Amino acid sequence: MDKKTKIILTLIALAAACVIGFLLYTMRQQTIESKQMLELAEMDKLEMENEYEQFAMQYNEMKTQINNDSLVAQLEMEQKRTEELLEELRRVKSSDAAEIMRLKKELATLREVLRSYVLQIDSLNRMNEALTQENSNLKTQNEQARQHISNLSTENESLSDKVAIASQLDATGIYAVGHNKKGKAAKKIADVKKFVIGFTIARNVTTSTGIRSLYIRITTPTGDVLTKGGTFAYENRQLEYSIRKDIEYTGEEQSVTVYWDVAEALSAGNYRVDIFADGHNIGTTHFAFDK
């Protein structure tokens, strides 16, 4: 074998070793990324299961407090539907993104339905209070009417703490894009200088008004959170957030836009945005960038 042939074979061997090393490194990074994304999905699925369970319990408790057969029948139907969806969720794998998203949309629909029942019962309470005041002012002697109002008031008294679930904020129409230095949409991660995240806080007349703190959490493809060190309380632990936005909430629909100036090295792939308020995850979206 001549010297030239030996050199060629040596170069081929070195090239092969480099390729194998690169493939092994890539496979390891993909394994780490998949594990981190799966952990986030498991956390999301567990929270959804907790909400479904709470909704089912709420319906069961409300049935025992209402003397209206028609309304009780409606509550039983909604409770059964909630329990069926909960069983579907428990059977779904966390990695099945399509089914998880479908059941998350179902959860949002259930929340709206529950709110409507809370509003109906709250309306009955307010009517009862008005009648009680009127009877007091007129000093009527209609004991039967006063007793009926008293009974309804007692039955509905325990429903005041149920408003907490219905008063949860919802973030809808969530979008996230990357802008380049000219303020235009960027497709490649190397061109991104700023993340722009927008969403709408839905109308909710059952929640309290005033200053509300929103926490936006941006997770990179490697599972890291873009943060400047700030944290907030969530499920008995502290989570890092990327952006905090305080809004004056009036109960009406409200648009919100926030920005993150990119100062760190970012990798291509799938990014995740989670929005939190009052200790709840009120919205999630995903977006991706090419190399």
Describe, in plain words, how this protein is organized in 3D.
With 291 residues, the protein is of the alpha+beta class. Helices cover 50% and strands 24% of the residues. The protein folds into 2 domains: 51-166, no CATH class; 170-289, Immunoglobulin-like, CATH 2.60.40. It contains 5 helices and 10 strands, in the order αααααββββββββββ. Strands 3, 4, 7, 9 and 10 form a 5-stranded antiparallel β-sheet that branches. α1 runs parallel beside α3, α2 packs antiparallel against α3 (97-138) and α3 (97-138) packs antiparallel against α4.
Blueprint (SSEs and pairs):
Layout: H1 3-63, H2 69-91, H3 97-138, H4 143-157, H5 163-166, E1 171-179, E2 194-201, E3 210-219, E4 225-226, E5 231-234, E6 237-240, E7 243-249, E8 254-261, E9 269-277, E10 280-289
Antiparallel strand pairs: 1-2, 2-8, 3-4, 3-7, 3-9, 5-6, 9-10
Helix pairs in contact: 1-2, 1-3, 2-3, 3-4
CATH fold annotation of the largest domain: Immunoglobulin-like
SS class: alpha+beta
Mean pLDDT: 80
Shape, per Cα inertia axes = elongated
CATH architecture of the largest domain: Sandwich
Number of strands: 10
Unreliable residue stretches: 29-37
* CATH homologous group name of the largest domain: Immunoglobulins
The H/E string reads HHHHHEEEEEEEEEE
Number of domains: 2
Helix proportion: 40-55%
Kindly report the oligomeric state of this protein.
single chain
Largest sheet features: 5 strands, antiparallel
> Can you identify the CATH class of the largest domain?
Mainly Beta
Number of helical elements: 5
